[in-house]
Amino acid sequence: MQDIINILPDSVANQIAAGEVVDRPASAVKELLENSLDAGATAIQLIVKDAGRTLIQVIDNGCGMSDADARLCFERHATSKIKRADDLFAIRTMGFRGEALASIAAVAQVELKTRQSGSELGTMVVIEGSDVKEQSPTSCAEGTSIAVKNLFFNIPARRNFLKRDSIEMSHIEEVFRRVALPNHNVAFSLYHNGRLLYDLKAGNFAQRIAGIFGTGASSRLYHIQESTEPVKIFGYVGKAEYARRTRSEQYLFVDGRFIKHPALSTAIERAYSELIPDHTYPSYFVMLEVDPSRLDVNIHPTKTEVRFLDENIIFAILRAATKKALGQFALANELEFDPSDEIDFTPAPKGYVPEQPKVSYNPDYNPFASKREPAEREPASGISRSEFEHFFDTAVPDEVPERLPLDDEPSPMPASAVGTSSPIGYQNRYIVTTLKSGIVVIDQQRAHERILFERLVASKQARKAPQQLLFPVNIRLGAADAEMMTELMPELNELGFVLSPLGQNTFVVTATPADLGDVELQSLVEQTISDYKSSMLQKFSDRDKSICLSLARQMAVKPGTRLKPEEMESLIADLFSCQAPNLSPSGKKTMFILSEQELAEKMR
Ligand SMILES: Nc1ncnc2c1ncn2[C@@H]1O[C@H](COP(=O)(O)OP(=O)(O)OP(=O)(O)O)[C@@H](O)[C@H]1O
Ligand SMILES: [Mg+2]
C-alpha cells in the first residue's frame, strides 16, 4: 500500500498556525506591542498605514536582539521567555509561546531592525512568507523596530476578507488601548496615515485613563482598591449615573494583561444591581494581580482567555470591593452591606453565626404625615441632600441661583438669592424642584415606591410592632392563591401584618404595618400574590424583597394624585435620604436632572 502522509513544510505549518494568532491587522499589532513590553521598553511607537493593510510598524527602546536571535525569533517555538513546562505556571511576560513572530512572518513582508545596548551595529532581517530574504548588519537606534508590510499578501482570501479601514482601525485602536492602559508606566504613541492619534506619556493609571478617554473621565469614576491574599485589586469603576448602553468601556486586566472573563465581569456588574437601569452597563478599568501559579493563561493563542484557580473567591472579593467603591460615595443599595465598614476578608471562625445587620432608619416616618424642612433633616442613613449634590457633581459655581422662580408665586427673595425652592407639581405626576446641580424633575410614583420599599425592608429588620385593626378583615382566596398565601404568610407577618388562616381558603388580618395607610386589604393581598407569582419579580433573589417591592408599588402614590406642597417637600426630603434615590426599586429612573450647562445649551 502507498504511504500518503507528509510532514508539512515549515512555511505551510506557520501559515496554518498564523490563522489562530493573526486574523486581522489588530492582532499583529497586539503581538508586536506585547513583545516590546516584554523587551522592557519604556517608550513604544506604533505607526499604521491604511488601517494596517499597508504597514504596521512598532518601534521600541527595549533590550534589542543579538544577530543570532534576530534570525531565530522568526522560527516557530523560538522564545526567550520560557524554558521548561514548569515555567508555564510562573509566567510574568506577555508572550511565552514563541509563535507570534513566526506567524506574522508567514503571512507578511517583515523588516526587523534591532540593536542591543552596547553593540556598535545592529542587525537587519527581511523575511517574506517565512522566507528569509536578507540579513545584514545595519546602523539603527538601540531597541527594536519591526515593520510588517502588506499583511496577508500571500493569502488573498484573508486580505479580501478584511473589513473597511474604519472598522479595522477601530480594532487596532482598541488593542492599543488594552495594551496601553495597564502599562501606564510606558509611553505610547499611535500614528495613522501620518496623523498622531494618541501621544501617551508615562504616568499613573488615572493619568493613562485620562490620556485615552479625556480628562473628564476621572469625574465619572470611583477608585477601587483591595488587597487580599488571592488577589489584589486596583483601578476605577464608573459612577452609576454614567452607565452606558453598551459594554464598550469595560476593561479588566490580570497581571497587566487585558482579559475577557464573563464571570468576573458579572461580579462587577452585580455590584450595580438596583443602582443602574436595566440594559445599561457600568464602565470599569480594573486591574487584578494574582500569583501566576494560580492563573492559567495558556488556554488560547491570543491569551485573552484565562482561568483562575481561585475564581469563586476572586468573584466574591471583586463584587464586594466594587460595592465598597460605590458605597463609599453613593451607598450601594444593598441593605445588608454597611459601606462604612471595612470589609474583612479573613474567613469566619468555625461555628460563627453572622449577626443580623442593623439598619438605622426611622420606620415611623410617614412622608405625607407632616411638613418638614429638608434642610433640618438629618437622615440616619442614605445620602443627604448635600451629598446628593456631590453625587451629581457637575461643578456648578456657588452663585448660581438655587431657586426656581415661579410665575404664579410672588417671589419673597430676589431670584439670585440662594435658597431652597418650593417644589411645584406638573400634570399631577412630576415634581419639579432645584438642586445646586440643576433643575430636578421627580416622578412622584417611582420616588414614593423607592421610599416605601426601603422603609419596608428596614421595618422588617427592625421588627416593628404592627398596628391592631379595629375590626379584623377576612380575606377569601381561590385554592391556588390560598396555598401561595400560606407560603407567603411568614414574610408578611415579619413585615408587620398579623395574618392567620381561618380554614377553607380564608385568612384573617388583625393588624397591619403602621404606615400602610388606607388600602383595601383583599386586593392588596391578591395583588401581592399575583406579583409574587409573576416572573417580573424574580429580580430579587430573596422573596421578602420581592414582597416589599410589590407592597411598595401598591402603596405608592399614583399618577393623577395631586400632592400638596408640603407633601412634595416631604417626598423629596425622603427620597434624598434613600440608599438609592435615583432608581425605583424595579430599576426605573426616579428623576431627571437638567444642569445649568445643559439648560444654557438648549437656550442657544
Ligand atoms: N521587540 C522585541 N525586542 C526584543 N526582543 C524581541 C522583540 N520581539 C521579539 N523578541 C524576541 O523574539 C522572541 C520571539 O517573539 P514571539 O513574539 O514570536 O514569541 P514570544 O513573545 O516569546 O511568545 P508569543 O508567541 O506568546 O508572543 C521573543 O521571545 C523575544 O526573545
Ligand atoms: Mg510575543
Task: Give an overview in words.
- Helix content is 31%, strand content 21%.
- It has 604 residues and is of the alpha+beta class.
- It has 3 domains: 10-203, Histidine kinase-like ATPase, C-terminal domain (Heat Shock Protein 90); 208-330, Ribosomal Protein S5, domain 2; 363-404 and 420-604, MutL, C-terminal domain, regulatory subdomain (Ribosomal Protein S8, Chain: A, domain 1).
- The strands form 5 sheets. An 8-stranded mixed sheet has the order 5-4-3-6-2-1-7-8.
- The longest helix has 20 residues, at 311-330.
- It is elongated and about 100 Å long.
- The termini are far apart.
- The relative contact order is 0.08.
- Mean pLDDT is 80; it is low at 329-419.
- It binds adenosine-5'-triphosphate and magnesium ion.
- The site of magnesium ion has 5 residues, from helix 2.
- Content of β-strand: 15-25%
**What CATH architecture of the largest domain do you see?**
2-Layer Sandwich
CATH superfamily of the largest domain: MutL, C-terminal domain, regulatory subdomain
**Major sheet: size, sense and barrel closure?**
8 strands, mixed
Question: What's the CATH class label of the largest domain?
Answer: Alpha Beta
